[in-house]
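User: ok so my PI wants both of these folded by tonight, can you help

Assistant: No problem, let's get them done. Here's the first:
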Amino acid sequence: MHLQRLTLRCLFAFLLCYLVVITKSHAYSLGDNYFKPLTANPLEARVGTMYQFDDNKLRLDIGNSIDLQTLKLTDSLLLSLGTDFFTLTRLRSEGKLKFPVETADFYFGINGAVKHQFTPTTEWSVRLRIAHISSHLVDGYASDSVFVRQKPFVYSREFVELIGAVEFSQQVRVYGGFTYLWATQPRRANRFIPEFGFDGSYSLSKSLSFEFGYDFKLIGVDNSYQGTHAAQAGLFLKTSKNKGYLLTFFAYRGRSVHGMFYDQNDAYSGIGFQVIF
């Protein structure tokens, strides 16, 4: 009951701030996300799939992050309020186009971001996310083609994430921040997760660009902290305004991003594609 009241209070506070800001600002419009999702961070909303070479697994991400309201507070200061809904799904390949689902993680929450043009070539931005994530076994878990009786358990987290970033010449962005878990099951997971990284974009032509990113988190279980590395690089083919296809190479090493395996290590690389819209 205490957790439910706390969650409701956070949602109410967000809604109250939203109403206060919107009533004081008349310049607003819908548009693309003011805070661009972090390229290499696994916990971002995506629509796409990635094949993992090392373990013959397939990751399927489905979801979106939407700015529901964008507000122009001043000529150089912008505010957005939005929401995130997505799933992270891990499948295994069994041949003949059969891909049983091993585990699925469900993420939903709210977000707010501010962006300020500091100089003509430099801007800073801050994003706050308040969210819930849970994880579930689906069709069973197999390792090296041998079915493993992975015991299901309750995996659930409520948390706040704060990220600050500086972008240079609309090409390279450096960021840092943290996640704090105010409620977590199992309780073996440490509550504070620092994070930093960078990402960027290099234009190759009018419709083609090179996208890249690296993300680092320090994740603890039973007070034993371990670095988790995620990297992604690929080509973005633009088909219309900020829409297109991203063909990408990715690599991951560290604590598993999937909650059912939160205390296990993953190490893999692979290729994939994403639909950007």
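One down. Here's the second:
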Amino acid sequence: MLLLDLNAPVERHDEPYRWAVAHSVIPEPTARILREQLPAPQDLHPAERTGDGDKTYRMAVLPLIHRGAHEPGMAKVGEKWHELVSRLQSDAYRDWVNRTIGIDVTDTMMDIGLFVFRGGDRISAHTDKPGKRATHVIYLNDDWRREHGGQFEVRTGPDLSISPYATVIPGGGRSVVFARSERSWHAVAPVAAHAPQFRLTCQVEMWNLG
């Protein structure tokens, strides 16, 4: 069974920053097994930040890899997750990121985690910390509709009253990879209360050394 398809179709964009949508980087048969091997809900850590800061959010998180080292969360997921995490740290995957968005991530340290969004969960518009070089968000839901919310929003600034430059429905084999810059504004729209399932993502963050 193919774990990671690094020849999957990609739609590349240069505006308003470097980003791309990849289709079925994780093939659906593999994604199905990953969903079956998710941790128990109580193993996820609630994460919430409110107020007037530059980034607010609400979600649940299970860190798997931090700066290249295993986190305790690795003991909570199944064998297929261990295989995926290994492949996501490979030279072949790093080369794929370079080919996809034109950013060299050869010498970066990786954070990998499982992010779960329930009804009302969201992330406000932000650009990420300066030490981050690139991010790849892989959507694991097989069937997700626009009315379920939770879209990835490509934005031109922090003002949420302005319509997004582009949106990506978080499912159906899609994933989003983008380069961090001072212009890389992005957000996650609130998940609808009536969404029939949790919004499931595997997030790969590539950080500068030091």
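The CA atoms of residues 28 and 173 lie 7 Å apart. The first strand starts at residue 10 and ends at 13. Good luck tonight!
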